[in-house]
Automatic annotation (TrEMBL):
Gene3D superfamilies: Aldolase class I
Catalytic reaction list: (4R,5S)-dethiobiotin + (sulfur carrier)-SH + 2 reduced [2Fe-2S]-[ferredoxin] + 2 S-adenosyl-L-methionine = (sulfur carrier)-H + biotin + 2 5'-deoxyadenosine + 2 L-methionine + 2 oxidized [2Fe-2S]-[ferredoxin]
InterPro entries noted in UniProt: Aldolase_TIM, BATS_dom, Biotin_synth/BioAB, Biotin_synthase, Elp3/MiaA/NifB-like_rSAM, rSAM, rSAM_sf
Pfam families: BATS, Radical_SAM
Coiled-coil residue windows: none
Key words of the record: 2Fe-2S, 4Fe-4S, Biotin biosynthesis, Iron, Iron-sulfur, Metal-binding, S-adenosyl-L-methionine, Transferase
Residues reported in the UniProt entry to bind [4Fe-4S] cluster: C71, C75, C78
Keyword Iron-sulfur in record: yes
Function description: Catalyzes the conversion of dethiobiotin (DTB) to biotin by the insertion of a sulfur atom into dethiobiotin via a radical-based mechanism.
Organism: Noviherbaspirillum aridicola
Cofactor info, note text: Binds 1 [4Fe-4S] cluster. The cluster is coordinated with 3 cysteines and an exchangeable S-adenosyl-L-methionine.
Protein name: Biotin synthase
């Protein structure tokens, strides 16, 4: 029996149905938002956005891969999985100075948050020694520090918190009933467990997912419902548009209608009013007009550069030109400040 069928049967039991209805955002309610006429959905999302944020303001977060490729997991979208032939070469963990040079460049380009990503199933304790030094160095530069290192074991979140980590990113990726179509080497519960550990250690949560992986609208609603029902919901919600990479199992899918992506942003904004909703992977493929619609739908954070930034980085310049064209501003924060929202 497929996991989808199991999930459906479970929901038909009275107890499961009651539990679902008791959630802040039952899937049906989220789906109703998705099904609104486009302009109505945009209007509602803008109302919510303006209650909590300056709609002209966008946060810049820079992502650096501190350990690229060679990952043992099988996430069907990911070119860093060792088992897919994507041309990505496995590299060792970057040296501290390389990471701090990238963080300085990110700060010079206006980033307020620096996110370090490692292609691991989870960090080994000896890896964490290095990551802790990176976190301390990033914080000393006056940036917020974020890390995405995979699943965490007991005690690891506390170590990262002690080093000063502000955010930990761990995405749920998709709806529970679609999850096994995308990843088989870890399950949904593992992800929720890591998110609990992060919260328990007092680190802010960055958690979202990817759309355009062949899921249905209901399953997109299922993803948003899962994230919105985390208690509390994440401070940061990255919404990725699948970037299809040759060699990965998801390469060659019919692309998602861009308006459906905009709807997903709007629904995330409505269901998680105070979260930073971040446009993440796939942003450039969407083009300027769709990105502008995403900002209008309530997105207010972007990943800015996905590799070591250097002066004159053309992607960064294109981002700045777009923000200027839209009359938007970059959010500036003090590292020690809580989320302004
Ligand atoms: S765990 Fe992360 S790096 Fe590894 S395959 Fe999945 S998405 Fe890629």
């Amino acid at each position: 029996m497929s996991s989808q069928a199991v999930s459906f049967l479970e929901l038909r039991t009275p107890a499961a149905a009651r539990a679902e209805a008791a959630k802040t955002w039952p899937v049906e309610k989220v789906l109703e938002l998705f099904n609104l006429p486009f302009n109505e959905l945009m209007y509602r999302a803008q109302q919510v956005h303006r209650q909590h944020f300056d709609p002209q303001e966008v946060e810049l977060a820079t992502l650096l891969s501190i350990k690229t490729g060679g990952c043992p997991e099988d996430c069907g979208y990911c070119p860093q999985a060792a088992r897919y032939d994507t041309g990505v070469q496995a590299q060792k963990l970057l040296e501290l100075e390389q990471v701090l040079a990238a963080a300085r460049a990110a700060k010079e380009h206006g980033a307020t948050r620096f996110c370090m990503g490692a292609a691991w199933r989870g960090p080994k304790d000896r890896d964490l020694d290095h990551v802790e030094a990176m976190v301390r160095g990033v914080k000393e530069l006056g940036l917020e520090a974020c890390a995405t290192l995979g699943m965490l074991e007991d005690g690891q979140a506390e170590r990262l918190a002690a080093a000063g980590l502000d955010y930990y990113n761990h995405n749920l990726d998709t709806a529970p009933e679609f999850y096994n179509n995308i990843i088989t080497t870890r399950d949904y519960e593992n992800r929720l467990d890591t998110l609990n550990k992060v919260r328990g250690a007092g680190i802010k949560v960055c958690c979202g997912g990817i759309v355009g992986m062949g899921e249905s609208r209901r399953q997109r609603a299922g993803l948003i419902a899962q994230v919105a029902n985390l208690d509390p919901y994440p401070e940061s919600v990255p919404i990725n548009h699948l970037v299809q990479v040759a060699g990965t199992p998801l390469h060659g899918l019919d692309p998602l209608d861009p308006l459906e992506f905009v709807r997903t942003i709007a629904v995330a904004r409505i269901t998680m009013p105070k979260a930073r909703v971040r446009l993440s992977a796939g942003r450039r493929e969407l083009g300027e007009a769709v990105q502008a619609m995403c900002f209008a739908a309530g997105a207010n954070s972007i990943f800015y550069g996905d590799k070591l930034l250097t002066t004159g980085n053309p992607d960064a310049e294109a981002d700045m030109a777009l923000l200027e064209k839209l009359g938007m501003r970059i959010k500036h924060t003090q590292v020690s400040a809580n989320m302004a929202e």
